[in-house]
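Holo prediction. Input below; ligand is heme C.
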Amino acid sequence: MKKILLVPGFMVMLFVTTAVINPAHAQAKKKPAAKAAAGGKASAADIAAGKELISKSDCLACHKIDTKLVGPAYIDVAKKYPATPANYAKLAKKVIDGGAGVWGQIPMSPHASLSMADAKKMVSYILSLK
Ligand code: HEC
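Structure of the complex:
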């Protein structure tokens, strides 16, 4: 019985130790996201991450970079909105909630499973296309 309890106990210790040893590493990774969330200008890393996230999501089924498809061309979105923290937040919320009325009556589908931080990275990439 004792042996059976020792194994998970050891696993927990190992996990805690790794978490304690690694905080510098974890923080370095989190920094760009934290910066965007705090309302700073997007970094090159955020923009690159946003491009990657868009390629893995369903965005490109409705959007192309330079031609209108179901949704507006990303270049047109970039021309309409300056790359400011306020616009990252506003458009990230629109991507998550979905909706229509800005570019026409066809609605964008909601993306409820996207985090605000990831949606902001996607938008920072779109608004960097000028
Ligand atoms: C089902 C098709 C569809 C998908 C999928 C889609 N969009 Fe859209 N998107 C649209 C349409 C249509 C509009 C125009 C909405 C409007 O007129 O308000 C739009 C508008 C936008 C806008 C501009 C919003 C505004 O208010 O000006 C952004 C930014 C955007 N989409 C990003 C994305 C991203 C990022 C994804 C992937 C996570 C995505 N879209 C997926 C159809 C789509």
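Residues 2-126 form a domain with the Cytochrome Bc1 Complex; Chain D, domain 2 fold (CATH 1.10.760.10). That is the main takeaway for now.
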